Amino acid sequence: MRFAYYQRLSPAEQRIYRRSDAVTEVPLRTPATLRPGVEAVRQALLQEDRAALQAATQSLARALTERLEVAGVEVEVLETRPSNEEGELHGLYTWAPGQRPRIQVWMRTAKRGRVVAFRTYLRTFLHELCHHLDFLWLELGASFHTEGFFQRESSLFGQLVPPSAGLERSEASDTGKWSTSTRRGRR
């Protein structure tokens, strides 16, 4: 199934969309070795320590990009999500010519200022990382939200946080719509 915006894309963008949609997994070698890094992210989030959370998330990003043999990405963890009438911005991937790619992730909800749930935070980070991987791992000229894109995000999450990890499934969900954007080729 293609999302509705597919019809508005140029023929070249439609080819990129189809290539993105066809890839549903990001296979990681020995993902269990990355789980201590995931736990460091969880602990820093629980402690509400922005600096520790940024360091742990940056370390996880480095480990993932090295494992996938792509150039690294700078991670910036910010406090409270920006919001507008459409919802809250959870994360942002930007990459401009001549600059290092960057992922920004916010750790607190806009409405109540609460620290986001661990699963929400990790999925947001992985979502933005998937945009980075679209450009460097898949070598796509743009990064679209396709079914394949969301499956790749879930593939990474499932390898890093297996169902047997013992994390609460009933963690509080965040309010506001899921929304992300970037400055390079995102729809």
State the main characteristics:
187 residues, alpha/beta, five-stranded mixed β-sheet, 5 helices, 16% strand, globular, disordered C terminus
Total number of β-strand segments?
5
Distance between the termini: 16 Å
Mean pLDDT across all amino acids: 88
Helix content: 40-55%
Query: Radius of gyration over alpha carbons?
Result: 16 Å
Q: Which term fits the overall shape?
A: globular
Runs with pLDDT <50, length 5+? 168-187
**Range of strand content:** 15-25%
Sheet with most strands: 5 strands, mixed
List the helices and strands in order.
Answer: HHHEEEEHHE
Structural class call reads alpha/beta
Folded structure, characterized:
The chain is α/β, with parallel strands linked by helices. Helix content is 40%, strand content 16%. The chain has 5 helices and 5 strands. It has helices at 11-22, 35-46, 50-67, 118-136, 147-160, and strands at residues 74-80, 83-84, 87-94, 102-108, 178-182. Strands 1, 2, 3, 4 and 5 form a 5-stranded mixed β-sheet that branches. α2 (35-46) packs antiparallel against α3 (50-67) and α4 (118-136) packs across α5. The longest helix is centred in the C-terminal third of the chain and has 19 residues, at 118-136. The protein is globular.
How is the secondary structure organized here?
Elements: H1 11-22, H2 35-46, H3 50-67, E1 74-80, E2 83-84, E3 87-94, E4 102-108, H4 118-136, H5 147-160, E5 178-182
Parallel strand pairs: 1-4, 3-5
Antiparallel strand pairs: 2-3, 3-4
